[in-house]
Design goal:
Blueprint: E1 10-14, H1 21-34, E2 38-42, H2 50-53, E3 57-62, H3 64-74, E4 81-85, H4 97-109, E5 114-126, E6 130-136, E7 139-144, E8 151-157, E9 160-167, E10 169-173, H5 181-184, E11 196-202, E12 212-215, E13 220-224, E14 231-235, E15 238-243, E16 248-261, H6 270-275
Parallel strand pairs: 1-2, 1-3, 3-4
Antiparallel strand pairs: 5-6, 5-16, 7-10, 7-14, 8-9, 8-13, 10-11, 11-12, 13-16, 14-15
């Protein structure tokens, strides 16, 4: 985030399905209006409206899912996001409402509070010349769907064939997403400011297939073997579409970065230790 303009523009978005969001939303919107900072607001979690408001900062009220939905909607027009946790875990949402108000001037003034994290560009090519381009902030997941049989996935790295994995699917995660689905499936935890791509098989039918961490410059190609059926594409926890055998994914580091505002009161490992209980001894 650039150093403060004469007047910053803030978009406020909330997920009204979360408890206490409406009350916090109206209180914050009044505060931002009074200061002449509010560029737009939406309480129905419809992030498509954000881009046209051209904000310098987005304040997200809800939980991590709300932040990911906003980042997905912004695609290659990312701006800093400050997350106010009104959900459950709040791993990415680093602020309380009081924290945010207390540190708002510092957030607008200090670009060093913005953590720039790598995203993934995902290109999907399907039989019949259909294709789609998308991004992943946390992860791109291929997973079994109906009729719920194992799938065969052929993997190449930088156009070099590497392996074929027969499994329930495959997770390709960013360091930001390493503490999400990847971690729950036994993948490694990677510090968010590390540039890397993580590949974790889901229930592989082989003892030799284990999670792997690649350099950020790697380009992963994943081919769904023709005989496989029932494969779902999931980006950042949201089901995108079913894919048929013969479909191919190309996954590489995005030219753009996910920009998350960190709470200046928190140290980099506090969330991992306090919320996920990492490294705590059993008593």
């Amino acid at each position: 985030m650039a150093k403060t303009r004469s007047k910053s523009r803030i978009f406020l978005i909330g997920n009204a399905r979360k408890s206490n969001v409406s009350e916090t939303f109206h209180s914050l919107s009044q505060t931002l209006k009074q200061r002449g900072l509010l560029a737009g607001a939406d309480l129905d979690c419809k992030p498509e409206a954000i881009a046209s408001a051209t904000p310098d900062l987005i304040i997200s009220l809800g939980g991590d899912g709300t932040i990911l939905a906003v980042a997905q909607a912004m695609q290659h027009r990312q701006v800093p996001i400050a997350g106010v946790n009104l959900g459950k875990l709040g791993y990415l949402a680093d602020f309380t409402a009081d924290d945010l108000i207390r540190h708002l001037d510092e957030i607008l003034r200090d670009g060093e509070l913005v953590s720039r994290r790598m995203m993934l560009d995902v290109t999907v090519s399907m039989p019949g010349d259909e294709s789609m381009d998308c991004i992943a902030v946390n992860d791109c997941v291929l997973r079994v769907a109906a009729p719920y049989r194992t799938v065969g996935l052929t993997v190449d790295i930088d156009n070099n064939p590497v392996t074929t994995i027969v499994s329930d699917g495959l997770i390709i995660a960013t360091p930001t997403g390493s503490t999400a689905h990847n971690m729950s499936c036994g993948g490694p935890i990677v510090q968010p400011d590390v540039d890397a791509i993580i590949m974790t098989p889901l229930c592989p039918h082989s003892l030799t297939h284990r999670p792997v961490v690649f350099g950020a410059s790697a380009r992963l190609g994943i081919q769904i073997r023709p005989a496989s059926e029932g494969v779902g594409l999931v980006l950042d926890g949201r089901h995108v579409r079913p894919l048929s055998g013969g479909s191919r994914l190309l996954i590489a580091r995005s030219r753009d970065a996910f920009q998350l505002v960190r709470n200046p009161e928190r140290r980099s490992w506090d969330t991992l230790v306090k919320k996920l209980k990492w490294g705590q001894a059993l008593t």
